[in-house]
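Entry type: protein chain
Record version: 2
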Amino acid sequence: MADHPLKGHFDESRATWQRAEGSTIEIAFVDDLIGMRNGEDPDGDILIFTEAEWNAFVLGAKDGEFDVEAFQDDPDQ
């Protein structure tokens, strides 16, 4: 079980990990929490998101906030 001091328990035993074709990132939805891990290291750390955090992350990804090019163009990054 992965624990987060503010978000609670992410019960790994109930997680059904999914990954997009060609990706190493896996996600699982358990109750009201979302877990994300590196599928090549399934025993490694799990990032735990609330639904609101997950929605903000997905919207940011769709908006290009995490594109490598965005960081390369910004000299402060």
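Comment: The CA atoms of residues 49 and 57 lie 9 Å apart.
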